[in-house]
Structures are given as structure tokens and as C-alpha cells.
Design goal:
2 copies of one chain form a homodimer.
Chain A lengths: L2 H17 L7 E6 L2 E7 L2 H4 L6 H13 L7 E7 L3 H10 L3 E6 L1 H6 L4 H8 L10 E3 L2 H13 L7
Parallel strand pairs in A: 3-4
Antiparallel strand pairs in A: 1-2, 1-3
Amino acid sequence: MTDKKFMERAIELAGKGMASNAGGPFGAVVVKDGVIISEASNRVTSDNDPTAHAEVLAIREACRKLGTYTLEGCTIYTSCEPCPMCLGAIYWARPVAVVYACDRTDAADAGFDDRFIYDEISLDMGSRLIPFSQTMRDKALPLFTEWREKEDAERY
Amino acid sequence: MTDKKFMERAIELAGKGMASNAGGPFGAVVVKDGVIISEASNRVTSDNDPTAHAEVLAIREACRKLGTYTLEGCTIYTSCEPCPMCLGAIYWARPVAVVYACDRTDAADAGFDDRFIYDEISLDMGSRLIPFSQTMRDKALPLFTEWREKEDAERY
């Protein structure tokens, strides 16, 4: 299979997910060594899970199959540019590349918040729509010291 | 319970999760009407799931309990500033506020990529560590037209 075939499958999943009212029109596949190892479409509304974006679901499934928490050597094909949540998930999973079709502006034009969230992330916390406040850092900070010194910690 | 008690619980969960080798030293709770409705600690390494951050798990559990895909009227308490993935999840879930203890720099000092991913998100795609490329937008774009026109779409 080629790049084109993998993206065609991601787009097909997006369409099927929308048609079955699983969620929004988004699909993704994870490919390793030329083979699709996981695929998903958006399931936010059917699963009552705001994190059930196609990329997140495909990453979780691929990791489950591989028995690891990273996607080394994998490429993710997604029908739309990943939102900030999915982009973060991708960075934690560390695939070698991401290929997308539509972009954040296309998603915004269809009523999705992707571009809005990108804009919010770059703002100072005090300027964001959702208020963020900091407290009790002194109580939490020793945990990081403990983590650094923990001999059997599995670092990721 | 007060703000302080909720954050104490988030920090306690972070410590317990680290001690049991579930994952990194991160904990979070979701509070509604003065009551904790979900709580979680990081489970990345024990679940082989790069998305199993405390905030994501707590959001998913709270939504499951509430039977919705948003967290209206809820506040999230987390032992550390949310990473970009969790921040994205928070924006999709739409709680009224977020309270955190440590910040992205504290996390970076302990070896976590939170700050690095924040830096990457603000870069042009061509400058990012993980290469992103666009293809076949013309094949995917009609899905968004279909979504806009779909009468029984549940918009989120």
C-alpha cells in the first residue's frame, strides 16, 4: 500500500463514522512497516468521551497491539490536521511522521474548535477563555524530586 | 471540601500512582457541586497508553459518570499544569476552571516533555521535530460539507 491508499482509508473511516453517527467526520490510521496496525473514526458523541478523537483512538489501539506506549517507526495518516489534544498525544507517542488532509481552518469552517484551541494555547493563562490558577506548588514539587531519585521509575 | 482539599487529593493521587509504578507523579480530580466525581493518576507505562495522563483519565471517567461529553459546571484540580494534550482535552470538555500546582517548567526539570511540546506546537509545521505533511485535501474536504448539511448530526 502507498501513502495514497492509507489516506484513502483514513478518509473512508471519517465518512463511515459520520454516516453511523459515531461522531464527527474524522478518521485516522497508524501504519508500521507498510501495514495498517490500527484505525479509528471519531467517537466523541457516541462514547460520551471528549477525548475520543480518531487520532487518540488509533494511537491507543496501536499501542495496545504493540504492547508499548510509543509508536516508534510508525506513521499516522489522518483525514484532518490533528487538534492540539491529538498533536500532544502524537508527541507523547513519537511516530516518525504525520500525514493529514484537511487543516484546522477547514475544521473551523465546519464548526469545530481546533483552530480556536490552537489560538488559546498560545495565550497567557490570564487571557484564556477557561481560567487557570496555580496553588500549592510547594506541596506538589517534592513529588518531582522523588521521581528523579526513584530507582525503579519507568521514564517515558 | 475546599479548593485546598481537592488539590491535596490530586497530589495524594500523584504520589500513590508513582509509588505503585502506575506511571509518572501526576494526579487529577474533577469536582462538581463541591464533590469529587472522578479521580485518576497517570497510567502511561502500566497501561501502555501514551494518552493515559491523569487529566485525560479523570475527564473520561467524569464524562462516563455524567453521561455527557462535556464537563459543564466542573472544575479540574491537577497536581501539575496540563500538557498540551491535556489542555486540548480540557478545552473540548469545557470545565469552568482549572487549578494546578506545579508548572511546565517543574515538569521539564523532572524529565517530562510538557514544555518541549508547548514549544513545538507554536512552530511552523516545517520546523517541528516530527514532520507533518498535507495530501489529498480535495478528497477529504467534501466530508465537512456533508457534516454541515447533515440534519441529524450531533454537533460538539
